[in-house]
Amino acid sequence: MSAPIGEEDAALRLDEIVREWEAQWRASGLVGEVEHAPHSDDRGHFHWMIRLRGDEKDVIALWLTLRQRTVHFESQIMPAPEENREALYRYLLVKNADLRDLHLAIGPEDGVYLVAQLPIADVTLERLDELVGATVHYVDEIFPTAMSMGLGTLYRRRPRRE
Questions:
Q1: Is the predicted pLDDT of residue 143 greater than 60, yes or no?
Q2: Segment holding 134, helix H or strand E
């Protein structure tokens, strides 16, 4: 059973903000695609996915989920670690203290995620821009170290692009 969204036009307003943000950033080359499911899921939530280009991670997918009274932001940094879990989790907890707006979490299937949650009314063009920028920055900062620690036998850092 789904709960209705707190404000009837919240999905339309959020979609307008996302589209305006996308139009401003399209020329930068940072934005890949923005997808939006026009209908809510079985829980009454609406979803957007913003694909971004990173330096360390080729594609950074940022999911926005409009819930009843909040917008949930989520981006996977890496899948579940297979090695050095204790050292990796210590690194992530220490790193978590330095993050602004977003925080690290263990998500579905034990993957490592950056997440945030804002009241619907607090999501403006400026706040969306700040959260997208922070997501790209933090993923590029955390991804290579986290992958080297947690999936070191599978991951090799590639040379930096100039």
A1: yes
A2: helix 125-150
